[in-house]
Amino acid sequence: MRTPKVLVIGIDGIRPDVLMDVNTPNIDKLAAEGFLSNHAITGYPSVSGPGWSSMLNGVWPDKHGVTDNSFEGERYNDFPDFLTRIEQIQPELETFAVTDWAPLGHSDQGSPPISDAVDVKLVLDGYELGWAEADTKSVQLAVEQLENSNPDALFVYLGNPDEISHEHSSIGSEYRDAIALADEHVGILVQAIHDRLTYSDEDWLILSSTDHGRRSDGGHGGNSEEERTIYFLANGPSVIVPTPSDSTFIVDVAVTALTHLRIQIDPSWQLDGKPVGILR
Which of 36, 154, 158, 206 would disulfide-bridge 235, Cβ 3.0–4.6 Å? Predict the structure, then answer.
């Protein structure tokens, strides 16, 4: 039996209809071979703090406590991210996270969304490095981990598309170019997995999603369909095609990752998500 492994690629602020309109050959290939929903749903308010919290820990804001980007009121000790959950249940598994939006990995008050229990946690500053450069560096660091170590679960965050859309207050050409660049990063990560010497003995699940959609002026945070509609992508030998058409939510990402790693979901964790699109 092949060893289950999971890579979660989080790309900030992706509006699914724009994603489908941009030339994204790497994401398209993953979708063609796996499962893609363009009608998944994120929580409210549709901003990054609660969105990434829900993706990482599998519960809605009423449980994890985060309702804005200040992260005040967080309850991550009660509802930890999926990598930390792995460390709690199967500490022998190797976990890795890289993010260039620093609040995901560092906190001056309380706990960050990705805890220090993760075996390798690398935090860059997209504001300092420039977001395109920071995303490139994040991908390089993840590739090095795949080449030189034996990670079982990885989370890679790409922030450039969201920042570009805010900078230009639109979903126009600059935003679309940023999505195309993110697709190149996805291709690099997928190739690094396929290049592993042990790849034939591994059962990789690649998941990708986003924290929120956006309006045509680049803004988000409200309860509109365009702000709360996100994509959910799953690719790998364990993905079921076609996948049942039940609604898919941001909280399903963490639960799908844990289920693939054969970690039994304990009801006492009170997770809101469900495994989507995989054999279980």
Answer: 206
